[in-house]
Amino acid sequence: MSLSSSSLPVATLGTPRIGPRRELKLALESFWAGKTSERDLLQTAAALRTANWARQHALGITVIPSNDFSLYDQVLDTSVMVGAIPAVYGWESGPVPLATYFAMARGAQGDAHDTSCGHAHHGRSVVAQEMTKWFDTNYHYMVPEFSKDQTFALSSRKPIAEFEEAKALGYHTRPVLVGPVTFLKLGKSHDAGFDPLSLLDRLLPVYVELLRELAQRGADWVQIDEPCLVLDLDEATRDALKRAYAGISAAVPELKIMLATYFGEVGDNLDTALALPVAGLHIDLKRGPDQLAPIASRIRPDLVLSLGVVDGRNVWRTDLSGTLDRITPVVKQMGTHRVQIAPSCSLLHVPIDLALETDLDPDVKTWLAFSVQKMAELATLGKALSQGRASVADALSASDSAVISRDTSPKIHNDAVARRMSGLASVRHNRQSPFAQRAEIQRKAFDLPRFPTTTIGSFPQTATVRNARASFTRGDITLDTYEKFLRAETAEAIRWQEEIGLDVLVHGEFERNDMVQYFGEQLTGFAFTKHAWVQSYGSRYVRPPILFGDVSRPTSMTVGWWRYAQSLTAKPMKAMLTGPVTILNWSFVRDDVPRSVACRQIAFAIRDEVIDLEEAGAGMIQIDEAALREGLPLRKSQWKTYLDWAVDSFRISSSGVQDKTQVHTHMCYSEFNDIIDAIGAMDADVISIETSRSKMELLDAFRSYKYPNEIGPGVYDIHSPRVPEIGEMTELLTLARQRLTDDQLWINPDCGLKTRKWEEVKPALVNMVAAAREMRTALASGRRMN
């Protein structure tokens, strides 16, 4: 029997924009390379939007979003929309050129003939805006930059244009905007002591102008995302939210606002959220399952509640019957006219279509749902709630069977792993000696110059490398032929590193498809896909492994390639591994055990590899924890629990070696102030970090903490096609020396070089080595670098 004769709205909040076959990536990179025109790029983008709307409509989604598409990043789109474009990019007023947009995203070399941003950038060499993680996801956003004299103006009509575009195709959409308060809180300012939130009164008129025009063009609902509501907020931010939505409501009373929160519980911000003059509130019931009852009991009678019941951040199939059991009482209480069914957050964070995966283990595949399948789940839930469970009996039965299959499968559990985990307390979790003693031993062993130079690990994966891998995967070439090719690429990379004078070498990782996938493919408990791409930033897409069961390492994973590489040089050759926390955080992780358990299982596997590398002769072993901070819970009250098991997992992996073995790690863009104690507790001998876009400001955390170990602050931004000059790098090194001692400093790029081109990498690294030599010469002569 149905709960109501009226249908229950089903929404998506946002969908992947990359295309089932990575059409957006191909279009962007072709445009950046100057092979296609701006018109070609925009036509591809329009075709992807059309396909997204049609797919949602066909699957039964009744609240279809627009303006969830982006050529690069939705926060960058918002900066451009409101005219928050720093003067360095040369824009003053009027429509924002695509060249300016991509200069903000990627930087611009400044050569009048350079078309890497789609057009020559008026001869200016500019760096990209800072980039960091979107809350606790693996998606990166471009950090807005504000100044005390900031002005705003409606400078991009993208939300209006895409609403009209959908309407012309017959789709009445709900436009999506990043909320004004979240937008300001995500930003930064170089003006000392300036709080971007103070710009709210200047920003609101732009939002009002935009919303008024959307209303005039027929929009009845607009989704405004304010995920800041799941953070620890001060009263100033809560007041800003009240002021923002009071202003919007008064200025555009005819428009209904669905205020979207996600990635956690609203918690102590609930009073604020419920008091805002909006028409609807979306809540994440996957990350914040316990908030349903208190919200349902206190919600205003005029407020629509959007229930985020399908996981927008993970790939596991929804337990439809269990979900219905849980939310049916709320729907009965409120009525179908006051409830919407939705994913927990935008489906941006999951792959597009499970049907494309033809080689997955059949059992594992039945446990999964990607964006298309999640939309079908949403439609099933909506139909069951409005027409009764009998109307979707087959779908519920299939869901029930998948739940039982996963719970009982022998593929999930490994007794040997369980036994090893039970002996966790007996394993050494610390290095043999304190860092000061280890450092003395290591300096004598390696005898490196001051400011030693190295890279993070990977070198460009050229079309030749990718084609060879594809040929081997298809069976077109033999393993012997493929490995001969990889050895030749490795040997050439080592020869070139020696030629330019790098001090510590890497083998280039040409045999590796991805820094997580490569290891996961050699561990038990992981499944892999061929087409399950998700966006990390811009045109950088990843295929996260699917961690479905207990993890172990059947045999060594990297020793053979390290041994071959070291045989080609007398210089130190770093062995390269991905750390347990990063493997965990960059995978779709099982949800049937605590994440801490899964992480420590991976840590034991990496520990085995570290010990094997040391026994093979590796003196430097890098265990990258690029994703350590992104797993940090959004609420500070939960930080300690996460950091305790995350740091412990790293130490399990790294502490089985002797003092003479130098352990390196690498971390991507992070607010290190948040986790500096944990970084210290990791006790890596050398940490390399991304600092170039922040002008070394991120090192302030290490200076304040008096971090004793060695640090390689990145001196050039590898996410941009720019080749930095020697002077730029020496300037950054001078800033680093103001924060750290000379004995602490290493010199390296911001991150791995896999995604760059050799014609960018070679001159950049030549300049980096030259910058290091200038610093050494200046130090030896007592000359001050300015």
Number of helices: 27
Number of domains: 2
CATH top level label of the largest domain: Alpha Beta
Describe the strand arrangement of the main beta sheet, using strand numbers.
1-5-7-8-9-10-11
Based on CA atoms alone, the radius of gyration comes out at 26 Å
Give the strand content: 5-15%
**Number of separate strands:** 21
Low-confidence parts, pLDDT < 50 over ≥5 residues? 1-5, 112-122
CATH names the topology of the largest domain as: TIM Barrel
> Quick check: average pLDDT?
93
User: Main sheet?
Assistant: 7 strands, parallel
How would you describe the shape?
globular
Any idea what the CATH architecture of the largest domain is?
A: Alpha-Beta Barrel
Overall SS class: alpha/beta
Helix content estimate: 40-55%
Distance between the termini: 77 Å
Summarize the structure in words.
With 786 residues, the protein is α/β, with parallel strands linked by helices. It folds into two domains: 23-86 and 129-408, TIM Barrel, CATH 3.20.20.210; 440-461 and 501-514 and 557-572 and 595-619 and 629-781, Alpha-Beta Barrel (TIM Barrel). Helices cover 41% and strands 10% of the residues. The longest helix has 24 residues, at 758-781. The chain is globular.
